[in-house]
Structure formats: structure tokens, C-alpha cells
Write a structure and sequence with these properties.
This protein has helices spanning about 5-20, 25-50, 60-65, 75-85, 90-100, 110-125, 130-150, 165, 170-175, 180-195, 205-230, 240. It is mostly helical. α1 packs antiparallel against α2 (about 25-50), α1 crosses α3 and α5 packs across α6.
């Protein structure tokens, strides 16, 4: 059934119920309510599963603008049906997670970068391919920015303030990626085709894109680890550990 047909079914029942209520025919109104509730349930269930609908009917548009999709009578049953149709089995999910490379780095990275990687792996495991590739670009950009700032080659205050005008992504990659800068930027540009909606898949596909991203991020951190360590302030020993320091020799 089309969205217009589903919507008009509910509209007609709503109008009938209102007409009966206006007539003060309470018994007939009570009898009409279940059909209206069922029609609303059918429409909500359809919209939960179909986030894009096509209609140029003003009455339908008005109805959809005001409908609350959280008012589902049996959210559990509908949710289980949608999950069973779209989500892989637990065994396949774990196997897919296992295919994705682990990122091995020489020191701690921002929590946001760790979260983006976790979500990219999860998206790959359940088949959200465009999301995997979009997150791959995010992972690469966050890593490049982190290394550039931590090595002192990019001022931290520039982040988020028209950064692209002063430091294009190509320039930022050149600052941190060494001899592989050209390859990294080519990979980044390929991922941009998905992020900017020009395609639903980059050249390397979801797994290839994520695998390359992890490899490049590891390489960038490895190339810059000494600069990062040299640029970061040394942490003072806690008071409890100071008495263990070796005393300096007398002259």
C-alpha cells in the first residue's frame, strides 16, 4: 500500500470519529476508535521502516508533520522484525569484527578517535557500508590533526576556526605523513566521494577503506612518535614517588 493510501485511510477514519463525536454519538465513536488506532499503527510501522516517502498531497504532508512515531503499541515486536530483517547473526557479527585490523599505536590517542574506530568496526560488522567509509575519513582527519598539533606543526587554536582556509587537508597531511603523503591524500580524496554524496562507495569499498585508513593512521603516528614525545611536557613525579628518586652526587 502506498504512503498516500495509508495516510488517507487514517485521515478518513479520523474525520469519521470527529463527525461522530460532534454528533454526540458516543457509542458509535467508541466503536470507531479501534479502527483509527489500527490505521495509525499501520502508518507508524510503515514510517519506522521507510524513512523516505514520496507524496505531494497537502493532507498527507500535514498528517505526517504531526505524527509521533514513538507512539507504537507494540514497539518490541516491530523492533524485533526490523532487526531480524537487517542485522546479521551474532556469529557473523563477531566474525566481521575480526576481519577488521586492530590499530596498534605507540601512545595514547584522543578518546574521540577511539570511538570513531569502534563505531566504524561496528558499522562494517552490520553492513552499514557508507557509514564505514564516512567514518574512515573522519578517523584519518582526526589522526592527522592530532599528530600535527601534538608535534607542534599546527597551532591548536586553529582547529575548528576556518582551518581549511589556512591549512587544507592536503597541507596537513604533508606536515605529518612523510613520503606517503601523496598516497594518504589520494585515499582521503576517495573517501570524500562518499562523505560529499557523490557516490555510495569509494574505490576500495568499506573494508578496504577502513583497512587502509588504519594502516595510514598507524604509519603517521609511528613516523611522528619521537616528535610527539619531545613536544609533550614531562609529567612531574607524584609526591609519593619523590623519595625514591636517586639523590644527586655531592660535588
Amino acid at each position: 500500500m502506498s504512503i498516500d493510501a495509508l495516510a488517507h485511510s487514517l485521515i478518513d477514519l479520523q474525520q469519521t470519529a470527529k463527525w461522530l463525536l460532534d454528533l454526540d454519538d458516543i457509542d458509535a465513536w467508541v466503536e470507531a476508535i479501534p479502527a483509527e488506532v489500527q490505521a495509525a499503527q499501520r502508518l507508524r510501522s510503515y514510517l519506522i521502516a521507510n524513512p523516505v516517502v514520496i507524496s505531494d498531497d497537502p493532507a498527507v504532508k500535514q498528517l505526517l508533520a504531526g505524527i509521533d512515531l514513538t507512539e507504537l503499541d507494540d514497539a518490541h515486536t516491530i523492533g524485533m522484525k526490523l532487526l531480524s530483517d537487517s542485522i546479521v547473526s551474532p556469529a557473523t557479527y563477531v566474525a566481521s569484527l575480526g576481519i577488521v585490523d586492530i590499530m596498534v599505536l605507540p601512545f595514547q590517542i584522543p578518546a574521540s578517535l577511539q570511538q570513531f574506530l569502534r563505531e566504524a568496526r561496528q558499522c562494517y560488522a552490520i553492513g552499514l557500508d557508507a557509514a564505514v567509509q564516512s567514518l574512515s575519513r573522519t578517523i584519518l582527519e582526526v589522526a592527522v590533526n592530532d599528530v600535527a598539533v601534538r608535534t607542534g606543526t599546527l597551532p591548536p587554536e586553529i582547529l575548528g576556526r576556518n582551518m581549511a582556509r589556512q591549512y587544507s587537508m592536503e597541507k596537513r597531511i604533508d606536515l605529518v605523513a612523510g613520503s606517503c603523503a601523496g598516497q594518504v591524500y589520494k585515499h582521503y580524496s576517495a573517501l570524500c566521494t562518499v562523505v560529499h554524496g557523490r557516490d555510495t562507495s569509494a574505490v576500495d569499498g568499506p573494508l578496504g577503506s577502513l583497512t587502509k585508513t588504519i594502516g595510514y593512521v598507524q604509519r603517521i603516528y609511528e613516523l611522528n612518535k619521537e616528535k610527539v614525545r619531545a613536544n609533550e611536557p614531562r609529567k612531574a613525579l607524584p609526591p609519593s614517588a619523590r623519595h625514591h628518586e636517586r639523590p644527586s652526587s655531592a660535588p
